[in-house]
Every structure is written in C-alpha cells, then in structure tokens.
Design a protein that fits this description.
Blueprint lengths: L11 H10 L7 H21 L4 H4 L15 H13 L5 E6 L17 E9 L10 E9 L10 H4 L6 E9 L3 E6 L4 E7 L4 E6 L10 E3 L10 H10 L10 E2 L5 H11 L1 E5 L12 H14 L3 E3 L19 E4 L1 H10 L5
Parallel strand pairs: 1-2, 8-9, 8-10
Antiparallel strand pairs: 2-3, 3-4, 4-5, 5-6, 6-7, 10-12, 11-12
Helix pairs in contact: 1-2, 2-4, 6-9
The structure holds 2,5-anhydro-1,6-di-O-phosphono-D-mannitol and magnesium ion.
2,5-anhydro-1,6-di-O-phosphono-D-mannitol binds next to strand 2.
Length: 338
Amino acid sequence: MIFHSDTSIVTIDRFIIEQEALFPEATGELSGILYDLAVAAKMISSKVRRAGLIDILGAAGSDNVQGEHQQKLDVIANAIITKAMDHGGRLCAMASEEEEGIIEIPPQFKCGKYVLLFDPLDGSSNIDVNVPVGTIFSVLRRVTPGEGQGRVEDMLQPGMKQVAAGYVIYGSSTMMVYTTGHGAHGFTLDPSIGEFLLSHPHIQTPTVGKYLSVNDSYERHWSEPVRALMRRYRGLDDRREAMNVRYVGSLVADFHRNLLGGGIFVYPANSKSPEGKLRLLYECNPLAFICEQAGGAATNGKGRLMDVVPSALHQRSPLFIGSKCDVDTATLMLKDDR
Ligand code: AHM
Ligand code: MG
C-alpha cells in the first residue's frame, strides 16, 4: 500500500500507475480504462458547467446562436463516454442507462477483455435548477469465450464480480471517486490545470450515520416494515438517535454526502414500483462496491446487493446503502417484508 503525505500533489494518472504497480500480474488495461474515464469526466464536467447558459445559448432541440443544434446534456454525456471508451482496445462492449441494448465496439477497433456499464448523467432532471448531478460506472471482466464483441451475458454478473467502479459528482467542485477493490479514493478536479488531484485517499464512512436520504412522498405506498424502519431512523420509536433528513434527489449527491459524513440512502420498493426505481447494474452495484470498500454496506432489503445475480440489463432494485450499522438495521427490520 502506498501512503501519500497530506502535502503530496498526486494526479489521478500517477495514482492509477502506482496502484497498478502493486499488482505484478496487471496488464495496464484496467488502468487505461480508468484514464479514459477520467478524461470523459473532465469533458462532461465542462459541459455541465455551461448548462446554466443554455437559455442564452439555446435550449435543447433548438439551434444556438452559432446555429448549432442543441442536445440534452444526458445525451451529450452518453456520447462523450461512448466516444472516449470505444477505441482503446480494452473493452468488448458497453451498456448505458440511456440505451436499450448493448453498445458494440465499432468494427475498426480491437476488442478487449472488459465490459463497461454506465449511467452517463444521473439525476439529469436536476440540471435545470443547478443542483449537482453525477456519472456512475462499473467495469466487469468478460465471461463469454472468444475475443470478439462482448454479449449481454458479460454484463449480467453479480456486483461482487466488478473489477472497478466509481462515480463523478459535478458539484461545487467536480470529484471522481473510484475503487478497484483496494480502497475507495477520491480526486478533486482542479479546473485551472485540468487535472484530478488526490484529495480523499482511502475513504472510510462512519459506522453509524447521521443523515437519512429518502423520498418520503412515497410513504403511503411503502410496506409496514419499511414505514417502521423509517420511524426507527427518525428516532420515533426511541431505539436510536434521530437522523437528519437530507434528500437532494440526485443519487450521486446524496450518496457522496452520506459516504463522507455517514448516513443511509434509501430507495425502497413500493406498491407503485415493486422493484424500486434505481438500476441494479448502472447505479446500485457500482455505488455498493465503493460503499463496501469504504467500510459501509448495501442491501436490497433481502440480502447483500452485490450477491444478486442480474437477469436483465435495465433491472431495477430496491436500495439501502451507507453506514454499516444503519444498513444492518434495514436488513433486520425488513427480513419478513413481503
Ligand atoms: P434518473 O436515472 O432518471 O436520473 O433517475 C435516478 C434519480 C436518482 O438520481 C435519484 O436518487 C432518484 O432518481 C430520485 O427519484 P425520486 O424523484 O423518485 O425520489
Ligand atoms: Mg440514473
């Protein structure tokens, strides 16, 4: 393990190289994927930073003052990631929350041994009101034989098979947090030099959280055990101190605050959305990997989220993620749910 002093300036590129050097068997392919993702994140960040100017420069679907056609930011982010990642020779397929089927590697490029799954701009409805949004990604090793295009089966692996995962938050600053299974590390973008600098090495989330993130406008659609759990988190059954409720409605923002400050993000199943809302492969699993690496936990209410074997690319899942003790409470109180 490499430790950096508080005053070291470490770019994400250097950190990735140093991490790779710890594993003699590493071929550098995974590192290449992470570099390319960091570049894509910088490009998306620069677009997000200009989002507030859209009224001046032209709304989505219209032409801007230069006569260029405006696209929605989630569509732009999707195209940026696809273009940044399709030619490196390290991936054999991609899948995006924005696209129905898998994204093939164009025939002129070499296929590699990994697949990438991503949500290019999560919470994008928040863009219009200048609230943080994020990108989430997950990398898996292909399981189908051969060296050509990857297949859906390569994507439908449980979260514990992820070899890397991370997210980028476009907030008051842009941060990228990733893991390759050796801790969760955060990097803050210095826009003046265009580099992600190591700012949060070896993130550890508190064991007991102080924040509760939940959209309780769905309360009337929750099961009784979920309602009882929420009463517990709020201290209403006198079994724990009341948590502070904080809900941005942008998963990456809510997750990131809770990861650093301690807390739980909850998006349960409800009678209107029996599987919950969030996507297992693009949202839940990558954040679960980060959270576990930071000493937290994630469940779908029945068991460890990363043990779930997916059956469809866009499968949804209930999500309870964050500080270990608070997730354990959910597991205990929901064990007889439905
Ligand atoms: P999206 O992928 O369509 O952007 O939806 C995901 C978002 C998450 O960022 C957020 O946690 C959740 O939807 C909020 O949903 P709700 O408005 O139902 O609380
Ligand atoms: Mg999303």
